[in-house]
Amino acid sequence: MTGEIETELWRKTGGVHCSVLFRDRKLLAKSSDVGRHNTVDKLVGYAVLNKIDLSCCVLGCTGRQPAGMVRKSARAGIPVIVSRAASTDKGIATADAAGITLVGFSRGDRFTVYTHPERITGITNPA
After folding, report:
1. Least crowded by CB within 10 Å, which of 18, 47, 96, 108?
2. pTM for this entry
3. What is the pLDDT of residues 67-80, one digit of tens each?
4. Cβ atoms of residues 42 and 33 within 8 Å
5. Which residues lie below 8 Å from residue 66, measured CB to CB, with a gap of 6+?
């Protein structure tokens, strides 16, 4: 999934954010924009227009996950967020309170699970 979060433009510039929406390990949609919030808004809009149940989806992002980004996903009903970047302490607290599994620093098979690790299979030490 981490590879799908990146786009060629993001790799070249580092200044264009990308978000992806997955369900059952299948890429449903991808969005790029200069604003990380915009990429999520576009995916949520796509899901609404296409009657996709977001409660069964995983959101992947290139950007940081502060409280506002996590709240946006919580309001949409997305239970899992995976980001290439870090989260802020308020983002982690928001994810924990909302019951969202928040994963950061996703790089191939390496990642940090901040909250609700029970949704992620195959990890031996979720601490």
Report:
1. 108
2. 0.89
3. 999 999 999 999 99
4. yes
5. 87, 88, 90, 91
